[in-house]
Amino acid sequence: MPQTCHVALIGQKFMGRAHSNAWAQVGHFFDLPLLPERSLICARDAAELRDFAARWGWQRTTTDWREVAADDTIDLVDIGTPNDMHREQAVAMLEAGKHVACEKPLAGTLDDARVMAQAAKRSKRSKTFVWFNYRRCPALALAHRLVQQGKLGTIYHVRATYLQSWGGPNVPLIWRFQRKVAGSGAHGDLNAHIVDLARFLTGDEIVEVHGAVARTFIRERALPGGGGGGKIAGQKAGVRKGKSDVDDAVLFLASFRGGAVASFEATRVAAGHQNRNTIELNGSQGSLRFDFEDMNVLHYHEGFDTSATSGWTRIMCTAAEHHPYAANWWPDAHVLGYEHGFINMAADVLRVLGGKRPEVPLPDFADAYETQRVLEAALLAAKERRAVKLSEVK
Amino acid sequence: MPQTCHVALIGQKFMGRAHSNAWAQVGHFFDLPLLPERSLICARDAAELRDFAARWGWQRTTTDWREVAADDTIDLVDIGTPNDMHREQAVAMLEAGKHVACEKPLAGTLDDARVMAQAAKRSKRSKTFVWFNYRRCPALALAHRLVQQGKLGTIYHVRATYLQSWGGPNVPLIWRFQRKVAGSGAHGDLNAHIVDLARFLTGDEIVEVHGAVARTFIRERALPGGGGGGKIAGQKAGVRKGKSDVDDAVLFLASFRGGAVASFEATRVAAGHQNRNTIELNGSQGSLRFDFEDMNVLHYHEGFDTSATSGWTRIMCTAAEHHPYAANWWPDAHVLGYEHGFINMAADVLRVLGGKRPEVPLPDFADAYETQRVLEAALLAAKERRAVKLSEVK
Amino acid sequence: MPQTCHVALIGQKFMGRAHSNAWAQVGHFFDLPLLPERSLICARDAAELRDFAARWGWQRTTTDWREVAADDTIDLVDIGTPNDMHREQAVAMLEAGKHVACEKPLAGTLDDARVMAQAAKRSKRSKTFVWFNYRRCPALALAHRLVQQGKLGTIYHVRATYLQSWGGPNVPLIWRFQRKVAGSGAHGDLNAHIVDLARFLTGDEIVEVHGAVARTFIRERALPGGGGGGKIAGQKAGVRKGKSDVDDAVLFLASFRGGAVASFEATRVAAGHQNRNTIELNGSQGSLRFDFEDMNVLHYHEGFDTSATSGWTRIMCTAAEHHPYAANWWPDAHVLGYEHGFINMAADVLRVLGGKRPEVPLPDFADAYETQRVLEAALLAAKERRAVKLSEVK
Amino acid sequence: MPQTCHVALIGQKFMGRAHSNAWAQVGHFFDLPLLPERSLICARDAAELRDFAARWGWQRTTTDWREVAADDTIDLVDIGTPNDMHREQAVAMLEAGKHVACEKPLAGTLDDARVMAQAAKRSKRSKTFVWFNYRRCPALALAHRLVQQGKLGTIYHVRATYLQSWGGPNVPLIWRFQRKVAGSGAHGDLNAHIVDLARFLTGDEIVEVHGAVARTFIRERALPGGGGGGKIAGQKAGVRKGKSDVDDAVLFLASFRGGAVASFEATRVAAGHQNRNTIELNGSQGSLRFDFEDMNVLHYHEGFDTSATSGWTRIMCTAAEHHPYAANWWPDAHVLGYEHGFINMAADVLRVLGGKRPEVPLPDFADAYETQRVLEAALLAAKERRAVKLSEVK
Fold it and tell me: Is A172 buried (19+), middle (13-18) or exposed (0-12) by CB count in 10 A?
C-alpha cells in the first residue's frame, strides 16, 4: 500500500496548471511508493484561486505562502512562482523542513541561486528538485542513457538551440520585456533549459565560455492597452511606444571539461519556430539529435565510420520494453505530448521521496546552481566582450 | 454552473484506460455545460476492477453490465468492450433511455451494426456516439475544416493507410489471431479508422469498391505458453504451432460519390511502422496530408498551380487562436499526444449532451454504420474477386 | 585501351536530351570496356535536328530512321521516340543486327510489346535494353542489393506510387490527353516505372491483379490556342473545350508469386507532387522505402522486432566504398540528380556490350514485356470490374 | 552565333574534375553569348595529365603554369590549385590580361588575399570570379532573390553550419592535418563557404566577431603507410603516430551591420553529417532555411505572425517558370545534384564575359576578400579570447 505525500503548490498560472496536472495524473499511470495528495494551493488572487482549486481538486487554499511553510501537514512544496520569488519561498520551506520542487531557472540572479543551493545543503532532511521537465521526455532520457552507456564515445560537439517566435515586432510591451520585472529575456527562460540538457546528456561540466552576444532587436514596442489618448488626430503613428530592455536573443560558445565544444542559442524572434528546443551531440562513436517539436523521436547515428546501411536512425521512443517511461503510457507510437514530461518528473520525485531510484537523474538545487553559473558566465562574456572561465563565476 | 453527467464505463482494458483518462481530464481543460462524474464502472474481473476503480476514481463498481442499464442515475454509458459485445449492451442501454458512447468499430458484424443503428434511430431521447478518436486530433479537425471551406476544391484522390507491426512472425497465436474470438484482423481494427476519416474529411460517401485483397501472411504461429509439454527435452524446434485465421492485412480501392478515387490499406506486419495512420487528399485547389506518428502536424499544399514559393506547408496545429481544441491546452508547439483525441472527444460529447455544438462533427451510430458497410463491401470484393457497389450492401 | 561503340539516337525531345547527355557524360566518369561515339542522330524536324546535333556533338544527322538501320557502322541504336513508333523501329534495328536500347514503356500496346520481345528472342547477335532509368538511382540499386542479400526476409508488402501534378484542370487539351495520339495517360507513363521497380526490387513476378480503377477527372479541357472565335459576345464561358479521353489516374492492387501484396497508383493530378516516385517494401526481416524527390536517400528499417535503438535509418547513398555507382561520382553527400540514372545506365549498357557485368540487372525486352503484361492486366481489371490472373494476359 | 571563350584550367584533382565538367556541360544546357573551348590544361604530373586531358577533352596540356600566362590565345584562366598557389598564379594571369576564375577560399592567408584583390583592382581589362559554387544552387539563388525582394524584412538571425565527418579518429595523418601544408583545417575550407553564403543571402557585411573557438579534437593520428617498420612483431599498439596541428572545428559568433546576429560552425568530425552545409535566416517578415543534403529544396516561412495555415513551406526549386536556372534543366522535381552549381556558375561567368547579367551576383576577388577578412577576425578572436571588430582586420 503506497503512503501519501501531501503536496502544496504555490502558483496558478501556466506552470501552476502544468504542475497540477502532473500531480493529478501521476497516480493514474505509475505505481509509486508514495501517492500525492493535492492538499494545499497558494496564490495571490483569491477569486481565481477558488476556481483553480475546484477545477484541479486542491483541497485547501491560501493567499499567504508563509502559511504553507507553517503547515505541518505538508511534505512537499512545489514552487511555480516568478523567478524573483524563488529564493525567499524556497529558503523558508527548507527551513521549515519541507521538500521543495522549484520551477526553473533556479532563481532570477546568481546570488539568489547560491543562497538557495546553500540552504539546500544545510538542510539535512529536505530533498530539492528543479523542474527541468525536458530531461523526462522519453527521447531525451534515452539519449542520456545511451551516452552513459558509452555509445557516443568521446563527445566532440554539443549544438543546442531554443528558438521561439512569440516575441515578434507586433507584440506590445508586456512585463516580460521589462528588465526590472522580468530579470532577463530569452536567456534565463530558454538557455536555462538547453544548458541543463547539455549537462544532463553529456554528464560533463562547462569550464569556459568563449564568447557571447545578447541582442534586443525590437527596442521599442507599443504600450499595452493601445494608449494614444493624448495623440493629435490624424497622426499616422498614433501608437505610443516604450522601451524594451531585455534580450530578445542570447548566443554563446562554450567548452566542456572533457573537451567538447558547444553552442547555445535562445531567441524569441525566430519566425516559424514555436518551441524549437533542439540539441545534438557528436562523438567519436556516434551522434544523437533531438527536436522538441517532434518530441517522441530521437535521431541516432551509430558509429563514426559508416557501412552500406548506416545513417541517422529515427527512433520512435514509445516502446514499453525498451524506452524510459514508455511502459507507463500507451502502446507503441501512441505518442506523448508536452505535459508528460511533467508527469514523468512527478513520478520520479515521488520515487525518490519514497526511497526508490528515479528513471534518470533528477536535478537538485546544487545541480541547477551549476546551470545558473553557466548562464552568468555567458552574460559576463557578452558584456565584457571576452572569454570567461567558469572559475571566475561563483 | 455546469450540471453533472453521470457516466458509467464498461471495460477496463486499453480502451477502459483511455476513456477513464478522458473523463478524468476533460474538466481540467474545458469549460463545459456538463461535467462528467465517474459514477460506475463495470468489468468481469472483480479483483482487477477494484484496483482499476480506485486508481481512476470511479465511485462504484459492478461485474454485471445489466446493472448499468438498470441504474436510473446513469446518464451516459461508455462501452469499451470487445466488438462482439457492443450490440447487446448498446441496445439494452438505449432501451433503458441512456446516451451511449461506443468504441469503434460499431460492431463485429454488419448485422449487429444495423441492429444498433436501428435501435439508435428508434430511441428518441438517447444520443449515440462512436469513439473514432482520430477525428479530434487537432490536425485532422483542421483538415476537415479546410475541406469544408472549399480549400481543396473538387477532391480527386484519397490515400489512406494504417500500418502497424505488432503482428510479426514471432508473435504467438493470441486470441486476436483467431477468427471465432476476434471477428477479423487488421480490417475491422484499422481500416475502420481510416474509412471513418476519409468520410469525415471529404464529407462524401463511398459508392463502389473496385477491388480488394485480404491476406494472412503468417498462417502458423507458436501456441502461447510455449506448449512443448510432450516434447523431448533438448529438441531445438520444440514449439507447437496453431493456425491463424484472421487477415494480417486488407487493401482495397474505392470511389466516392463526388468522383474521388481512394485507396485503403491496413496491416499489422509492416516492419518499422507502429501506428502509421496516414491520410492524404488531393483536390483541384490543393492537397492535405496527415501522419499520426507526427500527429501535431498537418501538411497543406495551397493551390494546384504553383508560384515561386509554393510547396507543402508544415502546419504545427497548436495555435490557440487558429486551431481546433488548441486554446484548451498548452502554448504553441507544446505538443499534444494520443490521449488528447479522447479528451477532446469527451468534451464534444458533453457539449452535445449539454445542448452545444461540437468543435467538429461527432459520429453517431448511423454514421458509423456507413463505415461498417464500406468495410463489408471490401470483404465481399476480396472474397468474390470483383467490384462491389455499396448499394449491394445493406 | 577501350574500343568504340558507335551509337545512333532516334529522337531529340525530352528523352533525346537525357540520352544525349548520358552518352556525352559516361566516358568522363566511368572506366569502360567500350567508349560511346555519338555517331548519328535521327529526328523528323531537320532544322531543329541540326541545332540539336551541334549542341550535343552528334557527328551526323538523318531525318529517316531507316537510314539508321541501313548504316553498317552503327553498333547500338537508342530509341527515344513516342511509344507507337517503338515496334517498327526496334524490330527493324534488330533485324539489321544492331543492339537496341529502347525508351520505356516497351510499347504502346501489349501486341507491339510481344512482337518486340519475340524479335529480340530471335536475334542471336543483338542485345536489348529498356530505359527504366530509376533502377540505376544508387539508392534503388542499393535497395535491390539488400533484398537480394535477404535483408528483408519474406516480402509481405509492396507499396508504390508515382504522383505528379502537371495535368491539372488548367492544362489545355494537348496531344497527351487524346487517346488516339497518346495511347494512354498516367498508366503507361508512370505505372510502367513503378511496376518495373517492384519487379526489380523484389526479384519476383506478379501473378494476379485484384482490382483496378482508371479515372479521367478532367473530362473537358480548353482547346489549345484559346479558340473562342465563334463564341457569342458576352458569354462567360468563352473558351472552347474538347474531350480528354485518357486516364488521369490508374490505381490497382496485385499479388506476387511469393505472396506479397502490392498497391500501385499513378496520377497526374496530385497537387503538390511533381515527381513523387515512391516505393516501399515490408518484409519479415525489415523494410525499405524510397522517394525520388529525395533521390539520394534510402530509408531502411533493419529487423522486424525492435531494440532500444531501432527505427528507420536514413541512408545517404553516396559513399564510394559502400554504394552502387558512388565511386564514379563525387565525395560523400555531394549529391546526384535525375540525369545520373541515365548516365549510370549508359555505363552498364556499355559494360554489357563489352562483356562485363552491369552493377545491377538491366531490363531487356523480355523483362519489359513482363511489366507490360501487368499493365494490361490492370486495364482489364478496371474495365471488367474483376480480378484478373496474369495467366489470362499473354 | 555565340563567340568562343578559350579556357585554360590549372589543376586536375577534385576541383579540376568539377570545373572540367562545368566547361564540358554548360554549352549543352545554356544558350550563351560565349561558348567555352577547353583549350589548355595545366598540372604537375605529366602522365596523369595526359589521361585527364583525353578524358575531359582538353586540347592541349602543359606542366608549367607560366606557359598559361604566356599563351596569348587564352581568355580565361580557371585556377583549381591548392590555396597557397592562388596568389602567384592569379596575379600573373591578371598581369597577363586574362580573366581569372579562382577556387575558394581566395587564398591561404589574408595577406595573399589582399594582394590578389589589389591586383584585380589594378587590372582594368580583367574580370575576376571566385568559385563559391553554392550560391548557384537554385534553392540558394531563390533565397537570395526572396531576401532582395524584402520578403524577410529586417534580418534578426543567421545560423550557418558546415558539418562533415570525413576527419574522424581513424583517418591517418594525411597532409590535410598538417598546418605547414594545408594552412588551416575546417575553417578555411568550410567556414569560407558559409560566410560567403551569409553575405550573399543577406546582402550585408559582418562588423564584429563576438567570440570564437578553434579545436583540434584528434591531436595524434596514425602515420600514413602504417609505419611500424621497426616494431616488434605481435605488439598490439604497433602503429606510429604523429601530431595533427590544424583545427578539426571552428565556431564563431558575429554581427552584421544591419543588426543581425550570426553563428557559424565548421567541423570535420560530426558523425552522421557528410556535407551538411546549412543556413537559416530569420527576419521580421519571415524565415528561410537550406540544407545542402536536400539541395533542391528551400524551406520558407512566410510572415512573422501566423494564420491557421501558416508554417514552413517546402519549396521544390525546380520549376522552369519560377526558379533560378531551372528552365535550363529538367522538368519539375527531376532534381539536380552537386555538380550543377558549378555548371550554373560557368554559365554566369560566360554571360558576364559576354556582356550579359548573371542570374544572381557572382563573387569577384574584392568580394571574396571580405569573406577572408571575416575568417581572419574569427581566428584572431579564438586566439586572443576576445571580441574583434572587423575594422581591426585589413
Answer: middle
Angle (nearest 5°) at CA B358 between B357 and B362: 125
D196-205 pLDDT tens trace: 999 999 999 9
Domain membership of residue D387 (yes or no) is: no
Task: Burial-class residue B160 by CB neighbours within 10 Å (0-12, 13-18, 19+).
Answer: buried
Do C235 and C125 reside in the same domain of the chain? no
**Residue D216, C-alpha cell as written in the block:** 583540434
pLDDT in tens, A227-255: 443 333 334 445 799 999 999 999 999 99
> What is the dihedral angle through the alpha carbons of B19, B23, B24, B27, rounded to the nearest 10 degrees?
150
Smallest CA–CA distance, residue A253 to chain D, in Å, is 7
- CATH value at residue C251: 3.30.360.10
Residue B350 domain-assigned? Answer: no
Q: Are D347 and D26 in contact (CB under 8 A)?
A: yes
Does pTM top 0.90 for this prediction? yes
pLDDT at A311: 98
The mean-pLDDT minimum among A311-320, B43-52, C177-186 falls in: C177-186
- Chain D residues in contact with C293 (beta carbon < 8 A): 296, 316, 333, 335
**D210 and A382 in contact by Cβ < 8 A?**
yes
Separation CA D42–CA D10 (nearest Å): 5
**pLDDT one-digit tens code per residue, A16-72:** 999 999 999 999 999 999 999 999 999 999 999 999 999 999 999 999 999 999 999
**pLDDT on residue B120:** 98
Judge if C158 and C125 occupy the same domain.
no
Evaluate the CA torsion angle B42, B44, B46, B52 in order and state its sign: negative
**Domain assignment of residue C189, yes or no:** yes
Beta pairing class for D99-102 and D128-130: parallel
Give B359's contacts in chain D (Cβ within 8 Å). Answer: none
Domain membership flag for residue A365 = no
**Percentage of chain D exceeding pLDDT 70:** 96
* Sign, Cα dihedral of C5, C6, C8, C9: positive
ipTM score of complex: 0.95
What is the number of structural domains in chain D? 2
Would the CB atoms of D316 and C166 count as touching at under 8 Å? no
Are C155 and C75 contained in the same domain? Answer: no
- For position B165, what pLDDT does the model report? 97
Q: What is the CATH number of the domain that holds D110?
A: 3.40.50.720
Angle CA(C118)–CA(C124)–CA(C128) in degrees, nearest 5? 60
Q: Which of B107, B134, B161 is the last residue of a domain?
A: B134
Cβ–Cβ below 8 Å for B157 and C263:
no
The verdict on B145 and B130 lying in the same domain is no
Task: Give the closest of D142, D309, D319 to B315, CB-based.
Answer: D309
**Do C41 and C145 belong to one domain?**
no
Which residue range is the domain that position B22 belongs to?
3-134
Residues B190, B252 within the same domain? yes
Same domain, residue pair D101 and D147: no
Average pLDDT over residues A155-163: 98
The reply to whether D251 and D142 lie within a common domain is: yes
Cell numbers describing residue D147: 531576401
Taking alpha carbons only, the member of C241, C295, C293 closest to residue C272 is C293
Last residue of a domain, one of D99, D134, D169: D134
Long-range CB contact pairs, A24-27, < 8 A, 24+: A24/A56, A24/A57, A24/B24, A24/B28, A25/A339, A25/A343, A25/A346, A25/B25, A26/A343, A26/A346, A26/A347, A26/A350, A27/B55
Taking contacts as CB-CB distances below 8 angstroms, the residues of chain B near C385 are 210, 386-387
Identify the band that residue D226 occupies on the pLDDT scale cut at 50, 70 and 90.
low
Q: What is the pLDDT of residues D66-96, one digit of tens each?
A: 999 999 999 999 999 999 999 999 999 999 9
User: How far is CA B235 from each of CA B231, B238, D111, D322, rounded to the nearest angstrom?
Assistant: 7, 6, 79, 69
D362 neighbors D351 (Cβ within 8 angstroms) = no
